[in-house]
Amino acid sequence: MPSFNDLSSACAEEWRDYLEHDFVRQLGEGRLPEESFRHYLQQDYLFLIHFARAWALAAYKSRTLAELRQATASLDTILNTELDLHIGYCSEWGISEDDLSELPESRATLAYTRYVLDCGQRGDLLDLHVALAPCLIGYGEIAEWLLDQDTTEIENNPYADWIAMYSSDDFKEAVEAEREWLDARLSEVSERRLGELVDVFRDATRLEIDFWQMGLDRA
């Protein structure tokens, strides 16, 4: 039966380029330029806002009470927990909430967030989840990959908190829950439908690669 692993395997080259991007490698080794990380943090704040919009759309697309509860719980977590934590983390890097409120969106942020919303609008709930999967599941895999690398520095790494956040038990639980949801739905799709979803996953992964590159280029 199809599962999330079929999506990532079908896009193995793009998935590897995303998980092992030079932005990720430099972050793990503690040599990522601070201005690159600040730029990424600011754009990630804007991404979170659109991520919340995507979960609001997921609520609209839900067909069962369980799906509706899942979507609204995710929306509440982003709006009332994650955004506040992100604002606090940004302040530690010298980025004020006023700074965040005046940010222009980079082209990479525009491209990825609007793609996700478009997938949800023209497709169904599964399309939306697949478009979001490189972000949620990908960050979990990236944190695990970093911890497995001999070159990753933790003690003297200014980005150690970022690695800890995405390797935490709470985030692992969220990743596992999303994998289980996707595996259950993907197991029911036809070969043709799976091919459509692979295309969505590949495009979303390519846009995530561009998001990392945006951080490096500070563009």
Helix and strand arrangement:
Blueprint: H1 4-10, H2 12-19, H3 22-29, H4 34-61, H5 65-92, H6 97-101, H7 107-122, H8 125-148, H9 160-166, H10 169-186, H11 191-217
Describe, in short, the structure shown:
By secondary structure, this protein is mostly helical. The chain has helices at 4-10, 12-19, 22-29, 34-61, 65-92, 97-101, 107-122, 125-148, 160-166, 169-186, 191-217.
Q: What is the total tally of β strands? A: 0
**Annotation field: number of helices:** 11
Please write the CATH class name.
Answer: Mainly Alpha
CATH superfamily: Heme oxygenase-like
Tell me the radius of gyration: 17 Å
Secondary-structure element string: HHHHHHHHHHH
The overall number of domains is: 1
CATH architecture type: Up-down Bundle
User: Could you please say which CATH topology applies here?
Assistant: Heme Oxygenase, Chain A
Which stretches are low in confidence, meaning pLDDT under 50 for 5 or more residues running? Answer: none
